[in-house]
Amino acid sequence: MDSPLKNGDHHGQNGVEGNDRLPKKPKVSVPITSAEIADEFAHHDPSVARINNGSFGSCPSSVLSAQSAWQRLFLRQPDQFYFDRLRPAILRSRLAIRDVISADDVEEVSIVDNATTAAAIVLQQVSWAFTEGRFDKGDAVVMLHYAYGAVKKSIHAYVRRAGGHVIEVHLPFPIKSKAEIVSEFKKALEKGRTNGRKVRLAVIDHITSMPSVVIPVKDLVRICREEGVDQVFVDAAHAIGNVEVNVKDIGADFYTSNLHKWFFCPPSIAFLYSRKSRSTDLHHPVVSHEYGNGIADESAWIGTRDYSAQLVVPEVVDFVNRFEGGIEGIRRRNHEEVMKMGEMLVDAWKTCLGAPKEMCSSMAMVGLPACLKITCEGDTMRLRRHLREKFGVEVPIYYRAPREGDNDDEASRITGYARISHQVYNVVEDYHRFRDAVNQLVSKVITCELLPDN
Question: Does the keyword field hold Transferase (predicted)?
Fold first, then answer.
């Protein structure tokens, strides 16, 4: 795509026709080299084994340069930027997103700050349906127990306060098969229909955050349709660039994913897909000049702010197309590598993975040695900080509380799991450093209770 500083054309309000597809990029004859990848991410701290791409993502230097160009363009002449350039540039990014997620129409795609904002947009609409009497008090909203914390709180803030009954789907972990999730989800829907209630909304993660598991989202959406659930919202914060995303095939009413986690955008940008039949009553929670002109326009103009992260999606597409197979090739290789590294760690520590290979993405849950004695959430934070400060390893830790019925074997005694990520900049030495750090703690009989609080 042309640099914003080189493109002097004014395309009017829309810039390009909404039904046109962006031009296809030619296949890369010479794929990006390891040296070029290292150069693109040379701004990363070289002293840290960064195996936590899942939390904050990563952005290559070429995209950061494009973002800087947009920022300078705004500062150079803000009036011209807002009135002549912003709308066409946002539309161009929306068109690129539409193509990546296989949506039918660009009008189904809005750009927002993050998946939490998208959740607020959908849940606000559900809240209004309760307060305006279109939904009956006590009707149910179903969500996964492992839903992201901010989204769970948003459901309670918007839905419970408006009179909705919230039901959580309790999922096992470690998990053995998709069938376990399907079974528990059906039970939750049945519970939601008791006493004549209706299930008005199902909130389904595509990939849960902690613990990280790929959810059989197509199966659950299909079940919702069969069971008469009014609306389905898929929170797919980790999905785009991590697993295949085809919103038509998935079939949900609403679908959101962050682009700064696994799609190489700078923070922060996400998209909200809403089927045309469901988008008429959606509004951005920040009411601004474009209120009432559709959720895409409302989201594209919410006052004076830095829009640059939302304008570089075409440059991100250019970046991923430097890799063999584009974004599909990237996510396939990331999945293969994270599974290799997960199995290497499991072999070293004599533990287990938290989910089968087909339920992992570019992230995997790896059991930590039980002798570390992780007994609470506080222990996970102490261990994480210790790994960061003493060993230069950045990785999140999940606490899995012991359950009644656990067998007295090594797997059932594991109470801590590390969520490892693999992105294009990672090398095998990152995971070896993590392995060796844990082995050193084990050999010195250092448990979490011996680690400092800060």
Answer: no
Question: CA angle, 99 as apex, 94 and 101 as ends, to 5°?
Answer: 95
Rounded distance between C-alpha atoms, residue 109 and residue 273, angstroms:
5
Rounded to 5°, angle at Cα 10 from 6 and 16: 100
- SS3 state of residue 143: strand
Domains assigned to the chain: 93-316 (3.40.640.10), 326-450 (3.90.1150.10)
Report how far apart, in Å, the C-alpha atoms of 136 and of each of 161, 198, 200 are: 13, 8, 9
Contact 172, 185 (CB under 8 A): no
For 256, the 3-state DSSP assignment is strand
- If you write DSSP's letter for every residue of 80-120 in order, what string do you get? HIIIIIHHHHHHHHHHHHHHHHT-S-GGGEEEES-HHHHHH
- The residue type found at 272 is L
Separation CA 115–CA 234 (nearest Å): 10
Q: Check residue 431 and report its DSSP letter.
A: H
> Cβ distance 59 to 265 under 8 Å?
yes
Look up residue 198 and give its two tokens. 């209706």
> If we measure between CA atoms, which residue out of 359, 312, 353, 340 comes closest to residue 426?
340
Q: Where are the beta strands (DSSP E) in 267-307?
A: 270-274
State the Cα–Cα distance between residues 125 and 123, nearest whole angstrom.
Answer: 5
Neighbours of 339 (CB within 10 A): 16
**Which H or E run contains 131?**
helix 115-131
Task: Provide the angle, in degrees to the nearest 10, between the axes of the packed helices 178-192 and 217-226.
Answer: 30
Tokens of residue 262, six digits: 């696994």
Nearest-5° Cα angle at 250, 247 to 253: 70
- Contact of 338 with 362, CB cutoff 8 Å: yes
Helix (H) or strand (E) holding 248: helix 247-250
| Maximum distance among all Cα pairs of the chain, rounded to whole angstroms | 69
Which amino acid, one-letter code, is at 200? R
